[in-house]
Design goal:
By secondary structure, the protein is of the alpha/beta class. The protein has 16 helices and 19 strands. A seven-stranded mixed beta sheet has the order 11-12-13-10-9-15-16, sandwiched between helices.
């Protein structure tokens, strides 16, 4: 795939970029390695000052970088602005909390003496150069939720971004440089996917993090495993959205629409499978379909647009294949199921609701990365949990019930990295984020995320420190 900005609203190639050659990559690896050796010794106060400055600059740049993101991957402009604001918030959160999250820990004196020590401590030390392989769907947020904690922990970053968001990728490198981070602390590598393995195998790279598809995660994990290097993977999701009789149905329906079409439906944590109790199924399906059908599909730069184009032509083709397979096998399109009329250019697809989905349909097992929802009717909590867990993915989940016993059941039995009651899944710097099963492993955000790329060091003193 060429490294280029291609406007998904028109299909027009706006700008192309040359891929870095081996000598350029080597120079950046050497710069990153040298930067880490110096940057690792900086204190939290200095790192915090730099990251807060980056947040201030991002606030100033919000409108411009939002337009860049919308141009490159098609999200509505309002959503792009919100993404930039969320990134600045996350930077400030880590700038203010990293020191406490990585504070030295001292086991109780009795336990230390039982271990033969006068004093024992646990220190969190940075690992080194971390390679980040990131996707296009949240081109700022996916990177910042790695970069902010990694930099605050004393690591340095190399970004291999998706090939269709090169201008956003280059902006991030420039942002951290303008904020005052030393050269080499954060660099963008304009390389294709075929060049990732060599970078990951380089001994100067200590670890990797990837957000993206399951095949991409498998490839990076295989190389990292061969090199015995730490990885964090956030892969696909096909999140369930369960609605039970005690739910506030009006709120559940409104939220369901947002949960499905956020980011034009191209979000790993978007609700995709709507599992509704038979007592409220008909009412939910009618209201949900009406709202989905009423969404405005159009130019993502227009403030009135609810759903813009899909980011790539291949992405739309993949989505069409899933929907067409389901329809051939007996599913019913309550709305959508086609490209919108009158839009000959750009990669648009109508908001779609499919009913009558069965296990032999591909969409039952595969992630639908676009504004397509699948409806399931269930008779009770046991069946709802069984259908929710009948997926190779386990990123997050949404459950609408006001019954406390039902809530306890879902907390205990849901196979997912998160369970959100009476609301929609969302990421926040203070909450750990990640999944199970084929949705990956490890966690981003919160204290769990910042410690993923730290060397947890046991320090044992046979006598009092300094004695």
């Amino acid at each position: 795939m060429p490294i280029a900005t291609v406007n998904p609203a028109t299909g027009e190639t706006l700008k192309t970029f040359a891929e870095l050659g081996p000598e350029d990559v080597e120079r950046r690896l050497a710069t990153a390695d040298a930067a880490f050796r110096a940057y690792r010794t900086t204190g939290f106060a200095e790192r915090s000052r730099l990251l807060r400055h980056a947040a201030e600059l991002l606030d100033d740049d919000r409108d411009d970088i939002a337009r860049t993101m919308t141009t490159e991957m098609g999200k509505p402009l309002a959503a792009a602005r919100a993404e930039a604001a969320k990134c600045a918030k996350a930077m400030r959160w880590y700038a203010g909390n990293a020191e406490a999250l990585l504070a030295d820990e001292t086991p109780p004196e009795a336990e230390a003496r039982d271990a033969g020590a006068s004093v024992a401590r646990v220190h969190y030390r940075p690992l080194g150069v971390v390679l980040a392989v990131m996707p296009w769907n949240f081109p700022l947020w996916q990177v910042v939720r790695f970069a902010a904690p990694a930099l605050m922990a004393g690591n340095v970053g190399l970004l291999k971004h998706a090939s269709n968001v090169p201008q956003t990728a280059l902006y991030l490198e420039d942002l951290f440089l303008r904020a005052g981070f030393p050269e080499g602390c954060f660099q963008t590598l304009l390389i294709g996917s075929g060049a990732v393995e060599a970078v990951l195998r380089d001994p100067r790279v200590a670890a990797a993090t990837l957000t993206g598809s399951e095949p991409a995660g498998r490839a990076v994990a295989a190389v990292a495993g061969d090199e015995v290097k730490k990885t964090v993977l956030e892969l696909g999701g096909s999140d369930p959205y369960v609605v039970l009789p005690s739910a506030d149905l009006a709120r559940a329906v409104r939220t369901a629409v947002t949960a499905r079409v956020q980011n034009n439906g191209q979000s790993c944590i978007a609700a995709k499978r709507f599992i509704v109790h038979t007592d409220v199924y008909d009412a939910f399906a009618e209201r949900f379909t009406a709202l989905m059908e009423g969404l405005t599909v159009g130019d993502p730069m227009a403030e009135s647009t609810d759903v813009g184009p899909l980011a790539t032509e291949r992405g739309r083709a993949d989505l069409e294949e899933l929907v067409d397979d389901a329809l051939r096998r007996g599913a019913t399109a309550l709305c959508g199921g086609r490209r919108p009329a009158g839009r000959e250019h750009g990669w648009y697809y109508e908001p779609t609701v499919l009913a009558g989905v069965t296990p032999e349909m591909r969409i039952h097992r595969e992630e639908a990365f676009g504004p397509v929802a699948t409806l399931y009717r269930v008779d009770g909590v046991d069946e709802a949990i069984a259908v929710a867990n009948d997926s190779p993915f386990g990123l997050s989940s949404n459950v609408w019930t006001r019954d406390e016993e039902e809530q306890r059941r879902f907390v205990r039995d849901m196979e997912a990295g998160g369970v959100f009651f009476n609301g929609m899944t969302a990421s926040h710097p203070a909450l750990p984020f990640g999944g199970v099963k084929r949705s990956g492993y490890g966690r981003e955000l919160s204290g769990h995320g910042i410690r993923e790329f730290c060397n947890v060091t046991t320090v044992w003193y046979g006598a009092e420190p300094g004695a």
